[in-house]
Design goal:
The complex is a heterodimer of chains A (202) and B (231). By secondary structure, chain A is α+β, with helices and mostly antiparallel strands. Helices cover 38% and strands 25% of the residues of chain A. Chain A has two domains: 51 residues; 147 residues, no CATH class. The N terminus of chain A is likely disordered. In chain B, strands 2, 7, 8, 9, 11, 12, 13 and 14 form an eight-stranded antiparallel sheet that branches. A six-stranded antiparallel sheet of chain B has the order 1-10-3-4-5-6, with no helix packed on it. The chains are: A alpha+beta (202), B mainly beta (231).
């Protein structure tokens, strides 16, 4: 009897939990839709004057942050002969400060698997469209780093799956305030960044 | 199916005793596994059901720490093993310094979700930075449309799009790259979804043998468990 009541209680708890999640997701979906509509309106209103309506260029400090993240990603995504990453361990950019921008413009300062690095500023929802098209209610200011070349990155994965992923397009979305990577994708193709700032190109 | 749970359940107190007493070597217990970035160690249970399109667990970590150059997770997956495989996953990620895992290259604790989709591509997303361990969090994955999946962690959501995977099973538990990880957690109230109906428990639980340091034991068969690397 006790077990039966426990089961009933558990079922109610389950229903409540599922209901709460649905409400949270509905609310989040509403926010996403509302912000998308708002962004679209802004975009439509400004397209005639400015093709890059909801993206912006980066400040020198942000460029340094973006390049710093790009070096971390580049150093830890070099594919080995078997396709796996040579190392998943990161190496920071060898210098910092404004000089990093000039330094990074030299292709010889990058691993040979990287062909091009570019970046731009935008909100997180727009940035997600350049990563994988995923949806998020979070719309904080970010900048996007786009790298092309040959990449292999260690990943979390279910048992039995490969422990790394490979691709030719690497995209990272970085929190504009903290410099932390928020979203990441490695793919064989990607949506082009509109008028990005090019850090370097071979 | 229940054999795994009973076997590990029987081993659990012994393993704890042996680890605590430092006499693990030479004892015929689950063998220690070389956990590396290319050979991950798992303490998981697999739940298989035709038409499964969602799974849920309330995760309460007892600890989460990891040496530099490694990671440990407390999480759940929804997997399409008939394809590449492809999957959606969500949960806690503890990332050590100096390593890039799924593009996240800053040491710390995260609530995260990730996916690998038919047609290629791996993607990872931070839902929450430095989530609390105390009190735990609900984590859930469920199908929204034929090509979209929601991932939920402690009030934060992400949506996997253009993802046409057909899930075959769910995994509940922990993953790590290091034998020195600490990531034991309590999972309570496991559920899975078929169609739009949620069912209590892990369906037809089975799985590989968690090799030390990873563990998986039922505390209430097929709904509540302890999984991960001992604290």
């Amino acid at each position: 009897m006790l077990k039966a009541w426990a089961k009933v209680g558990s079922s109610f708890a389950s229903a409540d939990r599922a209901g709460r999640h649905r409400i949270a997701v509905l609310a989040a979906t509403f926010v996403v839709v509302a912000m998308t509509v708002a962004a679209t309106l802004v975009s439509v209103q400004t397209t005639s004057a400015n093709a890059a309506a909801i993206t912006w260029g980066l400040s020198t400090t942000q460029m340094e942050q973006a390049i710093g993240v790009a070096y971390l990603e580049a150093s830890s995504t070099i594919p080995g002969s078997n396709g796996a990453p040579l190392t998943g361990l990161t190496s920071a950019a060898p210098i910092d400060g404004p000089a990093l921008i000039t330094y990074a413009a030299n292709p010889s300062t990058w691993p040979s698997n990287v062909d091009r690095v570019s970046c731009l500023g935008t909100d997180r929802q727009t940035a997600s469209q350049y990563v994988d098209g995923s949806m998020t209610p979070d719309n904080r200011p970010t900048f996007v780093v786009r790298m092309t070349g040959q990449f292999s990155v260690p990943i979390t994965a279910p048992e039995g799956a490969s422990t790394y992923a490979t691709g030719t397009v690497l995209t990272a979305v970085i929190d504009a305030l903290t410099g932390q990577v928020l979203d990441f994708g490695v793919d064989t193709s990607g949506v082009s960044l509109p008028n990005p700032m090019v850090v370097f190109q071979r | 199916m229940a054999i795994l749970g009973r076997r590990v359940w029987a081993d659990w107190p012994l393993a704890l005793l042996l680890v605590a007493s430092g006499v693990l070597g030479g004892v015929a217990a689950a063998p220690a596994q070389a956990c590396t970035t290319s050979n991950h160690c798992y303490g998981t249970v697999t739940g298989t059901a035709a038409g499964i399109d969602g799974d849920y667990i309330f995760i309460t970590p007892s600890c989460l720490s990891i040496p530099s150059g490694n990671f440990v997770t407390d999480e759940l997956w929804l997997v399409d093993s008939a394809s590449a495989p492809n999957w959606v996953e969500v949960g806690y990620l503890q990332l050590g310094s100096g390593i890039n895992v799924g593009g996240i290259a800053t040491a710390g604790r995260y609530g995260f979700w990730a996916d690998q989709r038919p047609g290629g591509g791996f993607h990872a997303h931070v839902l929450e930075t430095n989530p609390y361990l105390t009190g735990g969090v609900p984590a859930e994955i469920w199908k929204n449309t034929s090509s979209t999946w929601f991932a939920y962690f402690n009030g934060y959501t992400g949506e996997s799009t253009s993802n046409t995977m057909i899930a075959t099973h769910g995994d509940w538990g922990s993953e790590t790259t290091s034998a020195s990880a600490h990531g034991l957690h309590t999972g309570t109230g496991a559920e899975y979804e078929i169609g739009s109906t949620w069912h209590l428990g892990v369906p037809n639980p089975s799985g590989g043998t968690p090799a030390l340091p990873q563990t998986f034991v039922w505390t209430t068969y097929n709904t509540d468990y302890k999984a991960g690397v001992a604290c």
